[in-house]
Write a structure and sequence with these properties.
- The chain is 53% helix and 15% strand.
- It is α/β, with parallel strands linked by helices.
- It has 3 domains: 119 residues, Winged helix-like DNA-binding domain superfamily/Winged helix DNA-binding domain (Arc Repressor Mutant, subunit A, Orthogonal Bundle); 85 residues, Glucose-6-phosphate isomerase like protein, domain 1 (Rossmann fold, 3-Layer(aba) Sandwich); 92 residues, Response regulator (Rossmann fold, 3-Layer(aba) Sandwich), CATH 3.40.50.2300.
- Helix 13 crosses helix 14.
- About 3% of the residues have low confidence.
Length: 327
């Protein structure tokens, strides 16, 4: 008798696990056409699932055209003549025909390397299960001296991925990973070596992301008239340091540069009163606008505000969605 194993701590629902395993048993001819499937009572004893859950799985198999229910007799695998029709009815095969070909090719390659069908199934299920568990917990990490960069990543990732994202200082990452069974660590490419050194021994994957190149904004800075005062305001101290290097290297003493982190109200007020141009990230925009509004009566002319749309590059967002199975 084919043995089915349900992982109670898996992110995959138990009914889905059973559906997938029975489907594979049928596809691999462990349950050949015409074979009578185990009764709900037998499967309940083997898997520990409630009989109602098993009945639901059998109904799903019947709706997928894989089995036939015969009143008073049981559930039987459809005969060979019905299988092509069952395939045609499968919405996944219709929606993703190329993906189905890729799966077939992958299974063929595994068999060619000496794997049995059962081993191929275990490999596929283990990989899918691992990815689901990894995507269920996403950690963003950054050094404690630039947690602002981490906050920017968290805000943009939560908005783009529509899942909770936890910010962890790099100095606390070891402790957090000791408590977690699985997850995905995301960090800027600048910090990836340190994150990988911490995560690798714990078999936790690290995905580096690239920050936005700020090309449009840098071109604007190059066109600022000589003698102008430019303010840069951000959550990230790293962005401010990079801005200082870039602006000084490209404009030298032609412009006066003032920088401030978002929580530094005193320096922001100074920038608002002195700068003709203020560059800021989206998270700091509301603070900048509020400071300008407060100082409006003392300003001859309000500064021009340029708010950056992104911190993380669009390509990195797309790649991360794919890695987490969100696309």
């Amino acid at each position: 008798m084919v043995q089915f194993h349900i992982q109670p701590d898996s992110e995959i629902p138990a009914s889905t696990q059973l559906f997938n395993q029975i489907s594979f048993a049928i596809a691999s001819r462990q349950f050949p056409p015409g074979h009578r499937l185990p009764s709900t009572r037998q499967l309940a004893m083997q898997t520990g699932l409630h009989r109602n859950t098993i009945s639901k799985v059998y109904r799903q198999l019947e709706e997928a055209g894989v089995v036939d229910a015969q009143a008073g007799s049981g559930i039987y695998v459809r005969a060979q003549g019905d299988e092509n029709g069952a395939k045609a009815k499968s919405p996944l095969l219709t929606k993703h025909p190329e993906a189905h070909k890729l799966v077939q090719k992958s299974v063929d390659e595994l068999l060619g390397q000496g794997c049995s069908l059962s081993q191929a199934r275990e490999l596929f299920l283990a990989e899918v299960d691992w990815r689901l568990r990894c995507s269920a917990r996403v950690l963003v990490t950054a050094p404690g001296n630039d947690l602002g960069a981490g906050e920017l990543m968290v805000r943009e990732l939560e908005q783009a991925l529509h899942i909770p994202v936890q910010l962890v200082p790099m100095e606390e990452l070891t402790q957090i990973l000791d408590q977690a069974r699985s997850g995905t660590v995301v960090t800027s490419r600048y910090f990836v070596s340190e994150a990988e050194a911490i995560a690798a021994p714990k078999s936790v994957r690290v995905i580096p992301i690239d920050i936005y190149d700020y090309g449009k904004e840098l071109n604007l800075l190059k066109s600022v008239p000589k003698g102008s005062c430019v303010g840069v305001i951000s959550l990230s101290s790293g962005i401010l340091r990079a801005a200082e290097v870039i602006i000084h290297s490209s404009r030298g003493d032609e412009v006066l540069l003032m920088t401030a982190q978002t929580e530094d109200a005193y320096r922001i007020r100074s920038i608002v009163r002195s700068a003709q141009y203020i560059h800021c990230d989206q998270t700091s925009l509301a603070t900048v606008k509020a400071a300008i509004q407060t100082a409006r009566e003392d300003l001859i002319r309000a500064p021009q505000v340029i708010a950056y749309d992104n911190y993380i590059s669009a390509k990195s967002i797309s790649l991360l969605k794919r890695e987490l199975g969100l696309e």
